[in-house]
Amino acid sequence: MTLSRVCMMIFASAVATVLTACGRASVCDKPDVVCIGSGAPLTGPQAHLGKDNDNGVRLAIEELNAQGVTLGGKKVRLEVVSEDDQADPKSGTIVAQKLVDTHVKGVVGHLNSGVSIPTSKIYSDNGIPQISPSATAVKFTAQGLKTTFRVMANDSQQGKVLGEFAVKKMGGKKIAIIDDRTAYGQGLADEVEKSVKASGGQVVAREYSSDQSKDFFAILTSIKSKNPDVIFFGGMDPQAGPMVKQMHTLGLKAKFLGGDGAQTAEFLKLAGKDAEGVTASLPGLPLASMPGGSVFKKNFNAKYGEIQNYAPYAYDAAMTLVDAMKRAGSSDPSKYLPELARTQRDGVTGPINFDEKGDVKAATITLYRVKNGKWEIVDVVHSGADKK
Amino acid sequence: MDTFVQQLINGLVLGSIYALVALGYTMVYGILELINFAHGEVTMMGALVALAVIGGLLGQGVALPGLVIVLIGLGVAIAACMLLGFAIERIAYRPLRRAPRLTALITAIGMSIVLQNVAMLIWGKQYITFPDVLPLARFEAGGITINALQIAIVLLSCVLMAGLWFLVQRTGFGRAMRATAQSPELAGLMGINSNHVISITFVLGAALAAIAGVMVAAYYTQAHYYMGFLLGLKAFTAAVLGGIGNIAGAMLGGLLLGILESLGAGYIGDLTGGFLGSHYQDVFAFFVLIGVLVFRPSGLLGERVGERA
Fold this sequence. Notes:
The complex is a heterodimer.
Chain A: H1 3-29, E1 33-40, H2 47-67, E2 69-71, E3 74-84, H3 89-101, E4 106-108, H4 113-125, E5 130-132, E6 148-150, H5 155-169, E7 174-179, H6 183-198, E8 202-208, H7 217-224, E9 230-234, H8 237-249, E10 255-258, H9 265-271, E11 279-283, H10 293-304, H11 311-328, H12 333-341, E12 345-346, E13 351-352, E14 362-371, E15 374-384
Parallel strand pairs in A: 1-3, 1-4, 4-5, 5-6, 7-8, 7-9, 9-10, 10-11
Antiparallel strand pairs in A: 2-3, 11-14, 12-13, 14-15
Helix pairs in contact in A: 2-10, 2-11, 3-4, 5-6, 8-9, 11-12
Chain B: H1 2-32, H2 39-59, H3 66-93, H4 101-123, E1 128-129, E2 138-141, E3 144-147, H5 148-170, H6 172-182, H7 184-189, H8 194-220, E4 222-223, H9 227-242, H10 247-271, H11 281-295
Antiparallel strand pairs in B: 1-4, 2-3
Helix pairs in contact in B: 1-5, 1-8, 1-9, 1-10, 2-3, 2-4, 2-8, 2-9, 3-8, 5-6, 5-8, 6-8, 9-10, 9-11, 10-11
């Protein structure tokens, strides 16, 4: 290549870099704009859940902008910066760095525990508060970082309730446990195993898959030989749906129990007729029992359609971030972080106050079962500060 | 005991699918000494096209029995994949017929990436569910369950493999294929149009891939733009296991690999006392590949590649 060719290429790439860098940072650096980051899988098998979270944040921001937000006497405009983490820890960390570089003042994210945990380090290093609407792995808030919070009860609660429910209410004397080896699935399955054993049940099999697999025939056949009453799966609905179908194909008579990853509208579509009778849990109150539930449902459905699962939590997370900013009178993370830790407000999903680790104190777990192709509430278990 | 038989049945179904895809790899390698890495993606395209047709027909409310709708989808997928196979050969491989083997190999990998991304652009990244339209009778006997779809997959694969074997061993065209595989130049001297033979080989392989793709979509009830990658790698492993270039080898390799994978995933936990778990299922195929290449590189039935100067 000639010298002039090389020079041209360097010049062109420099121009391209400057142009791309310009566009992003400018909006969030304006003095009257406060950017809130939203990290969730917007493409891929969990995109329906990610978009749901994203829309929850957008609804909150739109409502706040309509009311008008004033911080420290100055009127500001809120903006959402959405990034796609593809439910993959590798993409998640890249996305987190991008959000930090865009100068967002707070992040609602991420959806998956497996992504929230590695990204929490990045946000913590840069002092950006992070509220996850749906990461339930215990490790997320157990790392001792000051900027991690969540508005959903964690897996030590969820696992405990699931294990007890399986043994006491589902007649499960022999229980098989499968997990997808992600931070979320593995963590939840371990908690369920502990809880099952504590409740007097027997764990007859522990099998593993991954969050990409679709062939469960081998592990289900192996489980079938152990004759379990209940099969618990720690993982998300792209695996839970086909798994239930394959259970049916193999003539497995055990009942299927899932965590919040399976308690989605998409699961009903993926599993079809075989979803009937499946039980799954979701931390938090049922939408209808949530203090702001029916109003939220109406507003959300009008703009974004059906709620998948975690949208109310994403909404609350965004609202809580801005509420802390209002109380601190500033959007500067170092100023509003202490206020965030002291939050005491009533969100759509229930009372929001954080303990010293960043977990929400109220811990209700709702259990649902599929009847006639729809999720119906079976049980609501209260614990923690929520207990009345 | 019944668990073992059930795992064998699972393995047989999986193996039949691997065998169908492995045939495409082995035929192309026998004739061109090229590993057609894009073959797994052809399988994926077959699955997605069939699902699009089936979804479209159901969306229009066409009043036909479910099986007929699936067969129409299958037919369209086969036609589409045959066209795709022909096009891939003409566009990507024929211009490189005289080029070094490495060039063609890299082109094949590039073609695979292109097809994956085309599929992603057309159908998006989400999983597409196979509609619940197939009548799924289930048979249970002594703790073993088998359903009509599994039986259909195994039977159809057997019929197709027998048909292909007959075509290659007992017909004039099959003789032409074998001659071209042995030596394209000499075959040309005998009056065989080797370009013609090569194109038809690709088309045949692609048709089998389309059928395998629809089987996978129906069996696992979902299809995805990335599903061809791992499937293609494992089918290639199966072809090498049986002896690359050897058609009977591809069939044997596929069945064997499916059974090994199924038994392995089912029993690995017990065998290693919980040290290795069933999430190592995909690893078996590649352990087998390494083992075969180290101890018996020509495969179980011996490789069948032509003499080239």
